[in-house]
Amino acid sequence: MQTNDVVLRIENLRKLFPAERKIFGKVKLFVHAVDDITFEIRRKESLALVGESGCGKTTTGRVLVGLEEPTSGRIVVEQEDVTPLLYEDESAAKRYVRETYVKRFSSMSDQQLKSLTGIDAVYAQRFLDLGKNEAKFVDEMLQNRRERVWQMRRRIQMIFQDPYESLNPRMTIFDIVAEPLNIHGVGNLKEREELVAKMLFDVGLTPPETFMFRFPHELSGGQRQRVAIARALILNPSFVVADEPTSMLDVSIRTGVMKLMMRLAEEHQMSYLYITHDLAVARYMSNDIAVMYLGKIVERGPTEEVLKNPLHPYTQALLAAVPIPDPEMKRGEPNIKGSVPRPINPPPRCRFFDRCPYAVKFCEDNDHPPLKEVAPKHFVACYVVAGEAS
Amino acid sequence: MLLSVRDLRMYYRTKMGYVKAVDGINFDLDQGESLGIVGESGCGKTSISMTILRLLPDNAEFKTGSVLFDTGNGPVDLVKLPESEMRKYRWRGISMIFQAAMNSLNPVYRVGDQIIEAIQNHFPDMPLDKAREKVAELFTLVGLDPSRMDQYPHQYSGGMKQRAVIAMALACDPKVIIADEPTTALDVIVQDRILKEIRKIQKKLNMAMIYISHDIAVIAEVSDKIAVMYAGKFVELADAVTVFKRPMHPYTYGLMHAFPSTVGEKTELVTIPGEPPNLLNPPKGCRFAPRCPKADSVCLDVDPKYREVEKNHFVACHHPVQPKEVVRFYAD
Amino acid sequence: MTEMVVAEPLWKIRLKLWVRSFKTGWELFKEKKLALFGLGVIIFFAIFGLLYPLYPMIMRNLFWKDDPFGYQTFMPYDPIIGFDPDIVSHPSPPSLRHPLGTDPLGRDILSMIMYSTPREFVLGITAALITVIIGTIIGASAAYYGGVIDTFFMRLADIVMLFPSLALLMVLSAFMELTLFRLALIMGILAGFGSITLVLKAQALTVKVRPFIDAAKSTGASDAYIIFRHIIPNILPLSFLYMMFNVTGAIFTEAVLSFLGLANIRMSWGVIIQMAESSGYLMGASIGTYWWLWLPAGVCITLLCSSFYFLGRGLEEIVNPRLRKR
Fold it and tell me: Which residues of A touch B (CB under 8 A)?
């Protein structure tokens, strides 16, 4: 199995935000920011998460780096289930382990447990080794939780969109880039200095000593974004969430940062989850692309394939709407109705139903369609495309 | 010519000296024509529109130049008009769709009332019901339901607000509309609709438009002519196809090849090395020279003249890019 | 490469950066005439107060050379127990021997004022420092944690703000001796839980939502690290500003308390005026006649309070970019 290659696997991730405030009684209205999404990223490969504002792409990234707690779902990083580490509250983590593993495993026979695959197999084996002792298993899953949270934070880093806001204006470039080292207690001052200098050199801020003791406001946007990249990479993460890192940069600067990110991914053997609204940028920054609409992934596949042959009506509309930098080329008309609604307790049918030009009765009567492989590695969540409704 | 700008110079006075934001701009605009001004942040593209409309902050200093605007009874130089006269042409002659348009609606007034106010400021004699009729007409024109006239801005979506702002710009039947980054904050699908809407209205009313954007793709879609601006100056101006197919200024060339596209072959993207200059003290010669692979000692010394190299193709460069020439930028 | 070329040790570079930012701040500050005036007055008072030990020595050499015994006995320039036996009736108007005259007990007023000056500084700055430390930490924490902690401290601030602190101090004075230091402590704490937390919390909230906080969090920074390393440095300039205003408040409150005779402070500018009041020299026509009993001390209070205030206003424009002209 090629699972060893998988750096990140997200299964059925869901994140709901309460849409109302209540002092008494339960909150009933939720914004379904991320609603049951599944994808994986292999080592050295990058996935672009594309969609319009409010589709849940940034929330997905924020859950991964621990800035939001997942509502449900499983996140596996390099063969380790890190979901229990993403809950701040230990009892929530415990509940997660019980619900995800203990409940399921204890109802299975040894035979069944042994036949599990993927990450489940690893934990099923542990479960068996511990003599099916539930309490022990839970304890082991949460062992050294603090320590492991730290380790996880080292492995997943994030680059933020706004280079003007993501660097503390009162810290020098050295302090900013060395901060992760500082937090994780890596090396002494001398070693940190060297690491930072090397990193600055790597991101093209040369010579490093002229940049190290300047403040962010003395740098240009492109340089600042390079500092942000240096900060994200200094702990040698296996995986970086890049939230629109180039959308605020000027064109002449942007390609430099894009190329830099590609080069560093190669050198540091790491992967990106590249969050962007810009399909053209996604084309250059990713191997795979996942198009999100209202918290759901509606289409996923190899980038070139999806761009050349978009199958989901939303992807088609999105692609048709992208302006082409060539006055002679005329693009098609985006075939889409209405505007993006807010996903508050969405009705159980295809999320795209209201705006879809091809929607039929079947789409309205059934729940949101699952992702289906319609071409090799090309998944689409649409009943009509999958041929199940006409 | 409807609008003809000659040697326009406007500097901002700061403690450190003059910021040469608009430094010798020339262009002509005809009825029904659309000009796209493309440039990076801080190159002075917004300042051009502010100078034409004379909506300048206190520390702005108008230096030289003329803005000849054809009012119907002969051209008037807008820069020489007294403020009271200028007010007549602002909005009625030349109006503007502002950057971050969604914030230019006042949240405490009904959208319709805000447009009516704009109309009545310029046509005080127009009765209210006539003005309302006019607003309803404008709403239909920009693709908004006229029944939404009496709603407040917060009840509008981003795209709708943008349409309302366009309706407001159209309120006094201007001859020229300047659209400064009209769709920057919008998602692509909404952006596409708005751009098409503006284009349609422009054709229908035979207006002249000036689009200002950092996004070459957007400019490519809506402009007949494109001006490329760099560090306070136009470096190239020609019709849209020529600028894209045969850019003569190395900066334009770099820009065209730096812009990723979703269609066609996936080509290697060009990186222009360095950073745009500080407009406080721009380089002595050509302002692009420090970043330009074709620059030589002349470029570093002498500011190139903005000249008509071919018919209707203006370039400010000592060594224009030849047809079929491949310029290699030396970044990374 | 990787050969590190930072020749200087880190602390030296930091010092240089600090000096540089101080210089740019000074450039801006220089243009605020009122603030410069404030700074000048503060410096004047600081020197004035520090020179106090010299004053009796000079006076002794000028006027008491012939009567060393008398000087020893009566200590005429002692601000608390001094007395000038050579003058028939006290209070005496300003003279060469007593440049600002004497009070009803025969003490030299100039020496009283000089003696009080460093104490006013200590009181004002201690109280303000306590206020600002409490206010900054609470404001930053309330903003960062939100929820119950936020609600608790904000309601507490409401209560403290609505509560007449002067009245509280009066009541307290009945229970304990309000010495200078205790007074500073109580005033500092009272003000620290009051309005300053609201202001600093509001500022901290704008810092909290900025992505660099998220960046630190995603790297694994602890709450304390984020509060102390990211939030507080960004609100510190504002805290410093409020410190200036609080110095004014503390000196002022002390003067009022002393004037009412509620503080157990042996000597201060407020005490000087209280002395004049309790001996009946502030009534009727005597207020004009015996002006030296209250005017110099009053001027000092006003000047020092306003100079800290002006300094604060001047700093405000440096600290708060929204007020700065770009």
Answer: 52-53, 204, 220-223, 250-256, 258-260, 263, 277-281, 283-284, 304, 307, 317-329, 331, 334, 336, 339-340
For A8-19, write each residue's pLDDT tens digit.
999 999 999 998
Q: Examine the pLDDT at C319 and tell me if it is beyond 80.
A: no
Contact (Cβ atoms closer than 8 angstroms) between residue A318 and residue A296? no
**pTM given for the model:** 0.87
Q: Do B271 and A326 touch (CB under 8 A)?
A: no
| ipTM rounded to 2 decimals | 0.87
Q: For tokens 């008037």, what's the residue?
A: B76
CB-neighbour burial class of residue A199 (10 A; exposed 0-12, middle 13-18, buried 19+): buried
Contact A200, A229 (CB under 8 A): no
Of A72, A101, A98, nearest in space to A86 by CA: A72
Which stretches within chain A are classed as H helix? 57-64, 83-86, 90-97, 103-106, 110-114, 118-129, 134-141, 145-155, 173-183, 189-202, 208-212, 221-233, 251-267, 279-285, 303-308, 313-321, 361-365, 383-386
- Residues B189-220 pLDDT 10s: 888 888 888 888 899 989 999 999 999 989 99
Q: Residues of B with CB below 8 A from A276's CB?
A: none
CB contact under 8 A, B271 and A256: yes
Burial class (CB in 10 A: 0-12, 13-18, 19+), C140: buried
CA distances from B143 to B140, B159, B167 (A): 5, 11, 9
> How close, in Å, is residue A183 to chain B by CA atoms?
32
Is the pLDDT at C1 greater than 80? The verdict is no
Please provide the distance, in angstroms rounded to a whole number, between the alpha carbons at the two ends of chain A.
Answer: 37
- What does R_g of chain A's alpha carbons equal in angstroms? 22
pLDDT at C208: 92
Q: Which residues of C touch A (CB under 8 A)?
A: 1-2, 4-6, 10, 13, 17, 210-212, 214-221, 225, 230, 233-234
Cross-chain CB nearest to A201 (options C1, C216, C220): C1
Quick one: A237 exposed, middle or buried, by C-beta within 10 A (0-12, 13-18, 19+)? buried
CB-CB contact of A249 with A222 (8 Å): yes
**Nearest CA distance, A351 vs chain C (angstrom):** 31
Say how far apart CA C58 and CA C216 lie, in whole Å. 61
Work out the number of other CB atoms within 10 angstroms of the CB of residue B274. Answer: 17
Interhelix angle C109-145/C180-192, rounded to 10 degrees, is 30
